[in-house]
Amino acid sequence: MLFEMGRPSGQGNEAEAILASADALGERLAALRAEIGRVIFGQAEVVDLALTGILSGGHVLLVGVPGLGKTRLVDTLGRTLGLDTKRVQFTPDLMPADILGSEILDEASETGRRAFRFLPGPVFCQLLMADEINRASPRTQSALLQAMQEGHVAVAGHDRALPRPFHVLATQNPIEQEGTYPLPEAQLDRFLLQIDLRYPAREDERAMLLATTGAAAAEADAVLTAEELMAAQSLVRHMPIGNAVVDAIVNLVRDGRPDGSGLAVVRDHIAWGPGPRAAQALMLATRARALLDGRLSPSLADIATLAPSVLRHRMALSFGARAEGVTLDAVIDAMVARIGA
After folding, report:
1. Which of 26, 74, 254, 321 has CB 3.0 to 4.6 Å from 326, enough for a Cys bridge?
2. Would you indicate the residue range of the signal peptide (predicted)?
3. What share of the chain is helix, strand, coil (3-state, %, to 5)?
């Protein structure tokens, strides 16, 4: 299989295998970005962050006002990555069984015997598009927790494994939008990255208008397969990472915790900070971003670029900080400055 990691006996052979696999994958990732770029306009950084999250094997939360193309982006990623994609439109009346599935009672027409049959919900796919996830009730939001973290769900007393790979790409409207519910912290922590979408630049918006309002709109084609994606995710975990980068990740995450931070801005304005899962997410994401850029190992610059997307949904401002107009991005910028990136 393409990019599959073997089991070489020596460290030299292992390094050569990683380098060869990274080179082969780099060409395919360049083609993947180009294919996505035919459909998604003016969101290159957003696309790279979303691909980083998927290559890291994690789930991604896309936050932005309606109409910025969040759903279109997820659909395009599913097509280009060759994944079985399903979509759930989250609404206030959506129930957990509408996502996970349920058992129904079947009766055989010939024998009259009755038996329960499991009817899988849309979560049984490789890429789940959870559209406007914060419009559902907390009870329904929590139905995704086990699936996102463990790769299986419990329905009617039976554990049922989800397909592999399995990713949730959720879209969310800003919380000040009417009719939304805040996501619980436990579920937010399951997302490897939170990506905030902004309005496109004027020229990008003009190009998007011309491309999407004609007789036929462009559709992306598959570039990778699900098997190749899993091999790429395995390669990410085999990539080398320097001690300086590891130390920077540990220091950055620990600086975000108010009880032991060396930064006054954190101690004064943060109610609670990131846990160890944030460090794991940042470690994987920096490797994936380096691979996406054609580099064999991550750098401090990768940490600086990814820190907001990894940390902003894992930290909370205190009441006083919100009253003073302090922003999480400003606090994270101060934390990043400490690592010297």
Report:
1. 321
2. none
3. 50, 15, 35
pLDDT at 340 exceeding the cut of 80: no
Using alpha carbons, select from 304, 312, 306 the residue that is nearest to residue 328: 312
User: What percent of the chain shows pLDDT beyond 90?
Assistant: 36
> Phi/psi class of residue 132: alpha, beta or left (left: φ > 0; alpha: ψ in -120 to 50)?
left
The span from the CA of 155 to the CA of 59, in Å, is: 22
Give me the residue spans of the domains in the chain. 241-341
Cα torsion at 31, 37, 38, 40 (round to 10°)? 150
Res 222 pLDDT > 50:
yes
The DSSP H or E segment spanning 110 is none
Helix 276-292, helix 44-55: angle, nearest 10: 120
CB 167 within 8 A of CB 60: yes
Residue 300 and residue 321 in contact, taking contact as beta carbons nearer than 8 Å: no
Q: Which CATH superfamily is domain 241-341 in?
A: Magnesium chelatase subunit I, C-Terminal domain (1.10.8.80)
- DSSP 3-state of 3: coil
* Residue entry with tokens 């959870």: 130
User: What CA–CA distance (Å, rounded) separates 337 from 22?
Assistant: 30
Query: pLDDT band for position 11 (50/70/90)?
Result: low
Q: Are 90 and 150 in contact (CB under 8 A)?
A: no
Token pair 């990019």: residue: 3
What burial letters (b/e) apply to 98-133, b meaning 16+ CB within 10 Å?
A: bbbbeeeeeeeeeeeeeeeeeeebbbbbbbbbbbbb
Beta strand pairing call for 167-172 and 127-131: parallel
Positive/negative CA dihedral, 310, 316, 317, 322: positive
Give the integer Cα–Cα distance in Å for 312 and 314: 6
